[in-house]
Amino acid sequence: MFKSLLAASVAAVALGAFTPLSAQTAQDPSATPDARADALIARMTRADKLQIVFGYLGTDDESRNGYHRPPLALDGSAGFVPGNPRLGIPPQWQTDAGLGVATQGVARVKRLRTSLPAGIATVSTWDPALARKGGAMIGDEAKRSGFNVMLAGGVNLLREPRNGRGFEYGGEDPLLAGVMVGEQIAGIQSNGVVATIKHYALNDQETERDKSSNAIIDHGALRTSDLLAFQFGIEHGAPGSAMCSYNYVDGLRACENPMLLTQVLRHDWNWPGYVMSDWGATHSTVAAANGGLDQESGFPFDVKPFFGAPLAAAVQSGTVPEARLTEMARRIVRSMLRHGVFDTETSDRSDTIDYAAHAEVTRVDAEAGAVLLQNRNGLLPLAASVKSIAIIGGHADKGVLAGGGSSLVYPRGGNAVPGLKPDTWPGPVVYHPSSPMAAIRRLAPNADVRFADGSDPAAAAALARSSDVAIVFGTQWAGESFDVALTLDGKQDALIDTVAAAQPKTVVVLETGGPVLTPWASRVGAVLEAWYPGTAGGEAIANLVFGKVNPSGHLPATFPASLDQLPHTEAPHGGDVHYSEGAAVGYKWYDAKGFKPAFPFGHGLSYTSFRFSRLKASPSADGLTASVTVTNTGRRAGAAVPQVYLSAPSGVQWEAPRRLGGWAKVMLAPGETRTVTIPIDPRLLATWDEPGHRWNVAAGAYGVTVGASAGDLGERTSVSLPARTIAVGWRPASALRP
Ligand code: BGC
């Protein structure tokens, strides 16, 4: 069966290469995507429709029955859907993912491309414009590499900080994650490339993700947490597609879950895009198609084809209505039309990629996303005149760590630290060849800069003792298909303690995929969380350490003081996973429980200081508007991130004492003052009314507080609002046209 499916698609694509269309409504770029899609659909046969809803793995895989990709698929790519030369429908060439153009499997040739910093780093910038710029950059590389569908961006909430893929996502707050990932999506799609918001929904950890993991959560809590992140992401990015996830939700597979795929996405949000399955996440024909799945992906990742011939039989017998197949196909072509795929040349022109310009984009992102967690006695920035520096551990002499799995972007210049285990999936462990030590040497040309790899703590301590300052690089490798412990890998905690005991001026630079425990924090001077900083990460770290760039990143996730502060002290092991914390994800949980974390959500220091004053809030047509005056009270230029937190009127129960309502990122010269206005979405003032299927804003006085973090709150005011309901399909005027 699989062979004949493949043969059919090969025959279809062999008829001719794709050329952009002209003439007729279907081919007229000035016609609306809906009109063009209707015109095309009218000409599609059932076979045409069946073909476009079925996707292949884009790369050969001997381990899957000797699978060979369709001839037009790009070697090492995630996926391929044949085009339709008769109708002028281009193939869909699909590539991972959110950090740049990745290479899958045992490709003969790896695509060597620019890697953004981890998604969690981009979100730490709290700068939507930067997220969009990064998206535009990787979308450009995708287009020039011959792709027109990018399997990005990931917006799963960091409900479980041990999620091995937390580094790909947007942290723990639905607004922050949704806005930042949505902006990245908009950037990608500015290239005529469809982006794919994922993994829908509640794929909030990797353990047993494609086996027994069954997410169970109260539906009101779901609306105000994970779904809200997707909703904001869709409104900000208008992704052409969404990827349903591996896990079960409420006992039903996410890719055949009518509540998620049909009720929420289509009916409630009126989203016109198409749902593709994650690779291997389709498990049925009728339930999936009727539940709302539009495209089966990555065959033969699924044990057998569920669309293709079985779907043809189901349509023939009427168990899947013909109209449903038509809708599936229409959604796909409509998204391709809406996002310019028909009107954009898709071919491999990777020799035209401007890697130098793209390195700048990723470096600026890494600099703005690194978070200065601690800086005792102004240890940082280091003066260029420092005489000697001990650099310890983390392969900092060679490069910066990347996360593992399908999002991995292979670096130009090769893996700086080859041979680390695991070297097969979810590895290889890759270090981008951007050495922090080399960059530090360039910024302190007269300093004696020496390296100890950290394998011998006594030797590292001796080097630290004999130097003016020590910089220890602490790493945690995270990746797809596994969850992580909330610690640095191996014995690095002990190494940091040993070095700190020898050298009071110890700086710790973290390269982790998410929060980790920092038991040594009180014994070191400074801590800089650089996440996985991407292609130019070494330069970015050095620029921050020497103050060429003033840190301005803020945490999108809470760093716990201990494991017993987490909602699940032990990470869930699959099976029924009861997310009993509901919508109290991350900082909301800490607030609700009165826990004091090691470093709170929103936290991030600067080499200058800021004052927030004159907080005001008033009702607006949509919700609320807050304004705050921000002053740079220090002696360096820097960017502040005033955060507005909301609290419920008395008598109204929210999941937690406070929700993030909005923020601004404000660049200020020394002594400069500016007043910023921060609009607040009314759904952040509401509770979800499950029986009424709408949002309710209760009458009462809402608290509005400005903070430098969720743990450092300043002025507070309140605004009285009348009772109001908000329809489930309400969208703010600023939402992108889908
Ligand atoms: C991942 C997706 C990815 C897909 C294609 C899956 O393993 O979960 O994020 O897009 O593979 O590579």
- Give a quick account of the main beta sheet: strands, pairing sense, barrel closure: 8 strands, mixed
Range of strand content: 15-25%
Tell me which ligands are bound.
Answer: beta-D-glucopyranose
Average pLDDT works out at 95
Q: Output the structural class.
A: alpha/beta
Q: Give the helix level as a range of percent.
A: 25-40%
The rough form would be described as globular
Q: Taking strands numbered 1, 2, ... along the chain, how are they ordered across the largest sheet? A: 11-8-6-5-3-2-1-12
Global Rg = 25 Å
What is the count of helical runs? 18
List low-confidence stretches: 1-23
How many β-strands, per DSSP? 34
Distance between the termini: 37 Å
How would you describe what is shown here?
The model is unreliable at 1-23 (pLDDT under 50). The chain is built from 18 helices and 34 strands. The protein is globular and about 80 Å long. The relative contact order is 0.11. Helix 6 (174-189) packs parallel to helix 8 and helix 13 (355-369) crosses helix 17 (537-545). The chain has 738 residues and is an alpha/beta fold. The protein has an eight-stranded mixed beta sheet with strand order 11-8-6-5-3-2-1-12. Bound molecules: beta-D-glucopyranose.
